[in-house]
Amino acid sequence: MYDNEMESTITGDRLDRLITESGVTIAEMSAKTHINRKQINLHRESLAVPCIGFVKKYCEFFNVSADWLLGLVDEKRNLR
Question: I want to staple 30 with a disulfide (CB 3.0 to 4.6 A). Which of 4, 37, 47, 61 is the partner?
Fold first, then answer.
C-alpha cells in the first residue's frame, strides 16, 4: 500500500467514524462546511485524500485535531 493510500484510508475511516458517531447527515454537513456531498463521500470512502482546506473544515466542524484526523496520533484531541 502506498503512503497516499494509507493516509486516505486512515483519514477516511476516522471521518466516517466522526460522521457516524455524530449522527449528522452528509447533506447537513455539506451545508455547514460548504463541501460538496460527493467530495465528502469520496473522503469518507477513502477514494480521495482531502487537501488541507478540507481537513481544516472537517476538524473545525467536528472539533478534532488535524493530527488525529490524519492518523498522526492515536489519541483523539479536541481543538478547543
Answer: 37
